[in-house]
Design brief:
alpha/beta; Aldehyde Dehydrogenase, Chain A, domain 1; 4-stranded parallel β-sheet; 6-stranded parallel β-sheet; Aldehyde Dehydrogenase, Chain A, domain 2
Length: 419
Amino acid sequence: MHIDTEATQHLYHAALEARVASRVLARSSEATRNTALTTMAAALRRAMPEILAANEADLAGFQGTNAFRDRLTLNPARVEAMAKGLEDVAALPDPLSRTLADWTRPNGLRIQRIATPIGVIGMIYESRPNVGADASALCLKSGNAVILRGGSDSTHSASAINAALQTGLDTAGLPRGCIQTAPNADRSYVAAMLAGAGLLDLIIPRGGKSLVERVQREARVPVLAHAEGLCHTYVHEAADHAMARKIVANAKMRRTGICGATETLLIDRGIAASLLPAIVSDLRALGCDFRADRQARMVVPDLTAANDADFDTEWLDSVLSIAVVDGVEEAIGHIASHGSEHTDAIVTEDRETADRFLRGVDSAVALWNASTQFCDGGEFGFGAEIGIATGRIHARGPVGLEQLTTYRYLITGTGQVRP
């Protein structure tokens, strides 16, 4: 590898340090890794004043939307949630050394498929500073070293969080190379990571569409992609109205800036007149705006007309696209044309229709009678997540501990030779 820029030089040395650390982690006991996680959680709590002060410095220079400000903002409850997340990961079963398969061949050879760490992971993320803590916890527990590159908006927060995590590693007696961060938010470091074949074993991007597309286009390292979250909630004509109103309000407005937020509401023509006005009223009271097709505007005339691009937009804000459809097959077709294969939900009391929808959409996560905002590693029992994978290789949906392992084979013989 040519060491011709400051960023490349830093990555080169960080990756060598991470490789050594990854070997230590791969051979470490579960108890050692769990101790590291709990001491890191304690260090986060002790460093809360410094973390919140660093976050205030980031917020002082922030000029984005309110939804993105919310993604960036830390408070005592969110720092505590980060610490609790590390403890939750520590409490999960060890993902390493699991026997995934075990069989004996006719010649007497015993073959075992064993879970093993991936190695050195590069994580590129934007805005949300808690991502660094979640990624660090999952990588450490699964025996992987990680190099983190956060967004320019969260530089101070990420640095303060990493300092606390490093203190926890020291206390547990693990090398600091287990968790490292980029020295700054310069874009050249991303370029160095993308070119880091032989240094990094996997890159995980977590951010906006442009970031993910750049990583997929330029990376010379395998990528576990997290595409945009253009999520849909489809309200079928057999939906319970009260349930539908509650689910849609939560799916859209609980946190508008997360990838699992519903961006498009699909509603059956048969119940649009009776239910859509109530849904719109509920969401307006929560501060939501709308982009609606002609059929929806015939029911609620004062809705803003949708243009051709609106149904392909991940709003990440208090905006909801609305389309009226004729049945489950049209809803599935709309999602296939406009969705991102992330998370999609149906609300209905009809089990047969629900089954058609769940089998018909090709999303990483499909839900029946539940909010799309449940597409979250913590809600899956993973303790945390490193992202939502929307590709088709290795992992789909929330990426937790098991998805951060690969496998190898152990073969036991009794003197066999191949004829």
